[in-house]
Design brief:
Chain A: The chain crosses the membrane at residues 31-51, 99-123, 135-155, 221-251, 271-297. Chain A: Residues 95-291 form the ABC transmembrane type-1 domain. Chain A: It is found in: Cell membrane. The complex is a heterodimer of chains A (306) and B (557). Helix content of chain A is 69%, strand content 0%. Chain A is mainly α. Helices cover 26% and strands 18% of the residues of chain B. Chain B has helices at 59-68, 116-127, 145-148, 196-199, 210-214, 216-221, 272-276, 287-294, 297-300, 326-334, 338-345, 377-386, 406-421, 432-440, 464-467, 481-491, 496-513; strands at 40-45, 73-75, 82-84, 87-92, 97-102, 177-181, 184-188, 229-231, 241-245, 259-264, 282-283, 303-315, 350-352, 396-401, 425-430, 448-452, 516-528, 532-533, 554-555. In chain B, the strands form six sheets. In chain B, strands 11, 12, 13, 16 and 17 form a five-stranded antiparallel sheet that branches. In chain B, α13 (406-421) links the parallel β14 and β15. Classes of the chains: A mainly alpha (306), B alpha+beta (557). The interface between A and B is medium-sized, with 21 and 26 residues.
Amino acid sequence: MTELTVPVSQTQRQASLWADAFHSLRKRPDVIFAVLVMLFVFAMAAFPALFTDQDPTVCRGREARLQPETWFVGEHPLGTDGFGCDFAAAIVYGTRPTIVLALTVMVVSVAVGLVLGITAGYYGRWVDALISRALDVFIVIPMLLGAILLLSLFRGRSAPDSMLETIAPPAIALCLFGWMEFCRYARASTIETKNLDYVMAAKCLGAKDRRIMFRHILPNAIAPVTAVVPTTIGGVIVTEAALAVLGIGVQPPATSWGVLLSDGTEWAGGGYLYLFGIPLVLLILTVFAFATFGDALRDALDPKLR
Amino acid sequence: MRRMRMAVAALAAAGTVVATAACTGDESDVDGEGGGGDAFINMQIGEVYSLIPGSSGESEGYRVMKNVYDGLVYYNIDTGEPENLVAESITSDDNQTWTIKIKDGLTFHNGEPVDADSFIRSWDRTAYAPNVARLNYFFATIEGYADMNPDPLPADTWADPEVPEYDTVETTHLSGLTAIDPLTLEVKLTAPFIGFPTMLGYEAFYPIAEECLNDLEACEAKPIGNGPFMFEEPYNVESGGTAVTWEDYPGDKKPSIDGVNWKVYLEGQDCWADFQTGDIDVCRPTAPDYESAMADEELTSRLVQQSDPSITMLAFPLYDERYQNVDLRRAISMAIDREGVINVIGPDRFDPLDSWVPESILGGGRGACGEYCTYDPEGAKALLEAAGGWPEGEKLQIWVNDANDNTAIFRAIGDSIAESLGIEYELVTVAWPDYLDARDGHAIEGPFRDGWGPDYNLNENYLEPIYGGGASVNNTGFEDEAYNAKIAEAGAAASLDEAIELYAEAEALLAEVFPSAPLFASKINYFYSERLDNVLVHPIYNGPGGDCELRDVTIKS
């Protein structure tokens, strides 16, 4: 971008960057696979009824811990869990909190990170110093540790009624310790972009700061941030699972993959490996898909690597 | 008796004092236990309500007190018969005036004599209404109780809505208690009661030292008992504590171990992980761990498996207007698939229960609950219809204390009710001391977990203490004239056999009102560590979640 001397039409250049990225992505089989996995997971989160006709809240004690004998047939295709609930339904209905949590954390973190990053990068001086030092403070606290500390405050609250109450505590904790990376990327590319001639031109024409930041700089700053997004989603899913295993994430009776994993570990030793194995495989597969996609997206969006 | 025992507890963990376990000879490794040596045994415990005799009335305080104090009698581990411990003899001509002779030369840990006055001191304290001792009710059969227990002030004037307050009560001594000489205590009852001596092994009847009464707060942390174990350091409710064997214990059976460390488990945590690393010596695994433990042959050679007369019930708040209809209460009971729940929480943990008195107790196992304790979703739905249905959109609240895997057990029960009746439920989990307070204060707003362990081998023990005392006193708010009349009739019966039959008739009357749904009779499944020997689990003294007779257990050299 440093080679640019003539202000080319901004929209056209944008389009070509994303179009190029799309072209290079669709040629990669690993990306196709990753996208299919992601679609599958998102579909489960959005339309659970398509994947199972069982109600996850119906649990019959007599049917507890039925091993999955045959795959995808019978009343309980994946067996039942420790309480006699259909395990396939538990997984399918546990997807939504997991995904909604991951997306919420991602959206909030990106929004906070972008705004702070662009502000810091654009204004520089004391604003930058303030935001950068705050960033330094947050960045030295590992996300998991920070989340554990914060969530300990929420312990002992009563059973949540709605999805919002279920995911709010872990979402708040993860957002608080998740925005720094986006902020750094946004700040770096803002500093890079703000001295470009087209920004100067806009300034000379009397454009207001806000317009310059969000109309001219943001479209440039967002590309490197975009590449981090899928990887972050994968990271949030894993962190949620870790918190659930520690008993401070999503609280039962609400389910998430983390809660299922946590319950499954108790039973794995007693010969019910599937209660642990199936959520684990699903989790690994999903995280792998997001990571692969994120990696490929970064390659595709970075002209230097093309 | 008013001892509400956590039939299924084993609470969870915060303690740090562990670990004198398998380390021989390394003095630097002694975690501050006063006794030195390494023959300390590590036991799990929940949150203790109180360590003053008469104030606890729950399993966890009793678990400590039964070892720190010696009562007048001690129950035989095989027959449950009371055998004299502190008492030399307990006699009566008419079953109404009892003469208790106390053994000579017994003292408390601090050197005070254990005499008639030490018992009178203790019993007066518990019986005095303004002290709000949980076992106050025990002394209702003794003369003079009424003078010490006037009606409380109106509930809305109390500072704490769960703690009753009284006008000044002038009488501070039970007139029925007289010290004939320093070692002879005469007890006058208001009516003949043949079972009186069998009650005396319980916490409510332990003696209290004068030093303890002078500073109850200090005594709460560091009890001054007369039993084989004593505290050198204060006991901490949240982290536990260590009691060492009393060097000068005058009793016949001095423990062979040097002391005991109690490690506290809270909030649904359990001792199994610590048991596996050797940090806890006796532990009952939860359902998932039980399966893998049973698959381990070496481990099953260290298993104590026996039936336990403790029972678990789902009690109803009869003081709550939503639970007034007997058909609703029966419907909820009928909707519970007891076999299914047992399948969830481990097949060897419980037996389904269809009576209020379990089979292993004299006069028990009569099946008084009958069809209402048999799983029948259709019948349950029909009964619910008859009761006017369940309010639309409202959730059935099931209250449970958060110890160990209670939450799992009551989730399975809730699942079963929800599935059979087509209603929604939620679990309200509360910490043990708060749960006791809420239950005593009738602050619970839905069916709740109620456990009971026997104090002696008689069906009366499962009837009168739980459902007697009047609507304002007992947990469910149950009061029924016919039932009370039958209990009184049985108490005055000429022979024990006759009394048992009359008590069984009272149990049948209980089924008419249905103040609680019997759920399970317990089974003991305790594993103990390699270094222990002679691990005996006492059907009456056993605390839930893993316990053994500390007076008998030995540590292999």
